[in-house]
Amino acid sequence: MDHGKALLRRLRSLPPEKRRTALIAAGEAHVKAIDQNWPTWAHKGQLPPYGDWNVWVMLAGRGFGKTRAGAEWIAERARATPGARIALVAATPQEARRVMIEGRAGLLAAARDGEERRRIRWEPGLCRLTFASGAEAYVYSGADGESLRGPEHHFAWCDELAKWKRAGAAWDNLLLGLRAGARPQVVVTTTPRPVPALRAVLAMPGVVLTGGASRDNPHLPAAFIRMVERIHGGTRLGRQELLGELIEDLEGALWPRSLIEASRVPEMGTVTSNCPLLRRVVIGVDPPASAHGDACGIVACGLGADGTGYVLGDHSVGGLSPEQWARKVAGAAEKWRADRIVAEGNNGGEMVTSVLRGAGLRLPVTRVHARVGKAARAEPIAAFFESGEAKLAGRFPALEDELAGLVLGGDYLGPGRSPDRADAMIWALTELLLRAAPEPRVRGF
Predict the structure, then answer these.
(1) Rg of the chain (C-alpha set)
(2) What is the pLDDT of residues 56-87, one digit of tens each?
(3) Mean per-residue pLDDT, 278-306
(4) Which residue has the higher pLDDT, 289 or 55?
(5) CA end-to-end span of the chain, whole Å?
(6) Could you read off the pLDDT of 134-149 as tens digits, one per residue?
(7) Mean pLDDT in the chain?
(8) Of 52, 132, 374, 431, which one has the greatest count of Cβ atoms within 10 A?
(9) DSSP for residue 344
């Protein structure tokens, strides 16, 4: 149990006057010790991992506290190893100075007390920071790998590695020089970007990966979190910059992330809002083989008066009985005023229709059968997205991850065993964009 954190929680639970009395009673020395104990204030994800590791990579969203975590780790290494030589590597020397050393969460701010602050010395002209213990840290640029050829280091801190130009050379030379002392280690603090250098680092043996989202930092203003999540939540940028997710494109992906973002339009309301006139609405269903199998894909799609297909809503669910997921289908059909259900019939055939009928669904149900592979079924629909004739009306992270896992001429390489949501969407859009439609009926939402 962390007694410092427990004490901090108790203090925060007290009314202000009682808290002040308790702090006075504790005495200045005790209060200062708590204030200067980094593990007491660090949130989950900021503390170094246990065990035998060579590289600690912290992939996290903006404002998570990566810089403070890196600075505290380096400062502690300097205290414990007075003769240490430390490498501080950023995208540019200017960023290293502004963020890693002089920033609000940098190394100068991580000094423990007045004595340590007085003895720490920063010499910008020499790009050298001398700690109170005598350990020395030198600034390097991730764009200049040659500057790391030759110097030996005990420890290193690499900040925003995903931004470095010529990162491969800088990283390789850093590792070749990380040979001083009995246990050289390096911490990498970065917002994730799918660049080759970061992928290479994560593939190394002895790498420990931690991280988290922006909202994991309890010290960030709630108004900031609400604003950025409202603007970027669910988008690729938001998942990368706020959630700290490393989102990569597969080679030959039918839906590259850039295509997904380019296909996005505002979310459509179910009554009026900004919804265009829709000629038809179809619910695509990809039933699970069993209640304990994959999810039931349930996706609503509409055909606009301009001939564009829109993905309206993802209502997919998992772990339900046939009667339960059929009621979810009925609910989606009622919400979007659908005129047809298109359900894959490979799993159960007639059962799909009977279950939907049992749920009180009286709309026409078209059973379709998969005669070709998932990627082959998806290719024509992906072409509609590429031409701008199909759009995502809103943000559907789980569905989008499945779309990004469908590969040209191949199989499914995305999350989960099967792209249930993507299959449901593809069946619905195939009905709307490729099959002969019934007599059009203009409906305003």
Answers:
(1) 28
(2) 999 988 889 999 999 999 999 999 999 999 99
(3) 87
(4) 55
(5) 56
(6) 999 999 999 998 999 9
(7) 85
(8) 431
(9) E
Q: What one-character-per-residue DSSP string does 263-321 give?
A: TEEPPPPSSSTTPPPEEEEEEEEE--SSTTSS-BEEEEEEEETTS-EEEEEE--B-S--
406 exposure class (CB count in 10 Å sphere: 0-12, 13-18, 19+): buried
CB atoms within 10 A of CB 421: 27
Domains 42-216 and 257-433 equal at CATH topology level: no
Instruction: Give the DSSP H/E element, type plus range, for residue 224.
Output: helix 222-232
Token pair recorded at residue 262: 């380019």
Residue 23 has a pLDDT of 67
Q: How far apart are CA 104 and CA 187, in angstroms?
A: 19
* Distance, CA of 400 to CA of 69 (rounded, Å): 32
Q: Could you tell me which of 273, 163, 215, 261 has the C-alpha nearest to residue 45? A: 215
Q: Which letter does DSSP use for residue 362 in this model?
A: -
The interaxial angle of helices 420-433 and 397-404, nearest 10 deg, is 80
Strand partners, 391: 310
Residues 6+ apart with CB under 8 A from 204: 54, 55
Bridge partners of residue 212, in order along the sequence: 60
| CATH architecture for segment(s) 42-216 | 3-Layer(aba) Sandwich (3.40)
- Asked if 288 contacts 347 with a C-beta cutoff of 8 angstroms, the reply is yes
Please give the DSSP secondary-structure letter assigned to residue 214: G
Three-class SS of residue 220?
coil
- Work out the number of other CB atoms within 10 angstroms of the CB of residue 254: 24
3-state secondary structure of 176: helix
Q: What is the DSSP string of 107-167?
A: TTTT--SHHHHHH-EEEGGGTEEE-TTS-EEEEEETT-GGGGSS---SEEEEESGGG-TTH
Please report, for the chain, the start and end positions of each structural domain, with discontinuous segments joined by +.
3-40, 42-216, 257-433
202-211 burial by CB neighbour count: b if 16+ within 10 A, else e?
A: eeeeeebebb
Q: Which helix (H) or strand (E) holds 358?
A: helix 350-358
Domain 257-433 classified CATH 3.90.550.10? Answer: no
Q: Given this model, what pLDDT does residue 26 score? A: 65
Both tokens of residue 289? 């083989």
Q: What is the pLDDT of residue 442?
A: 44
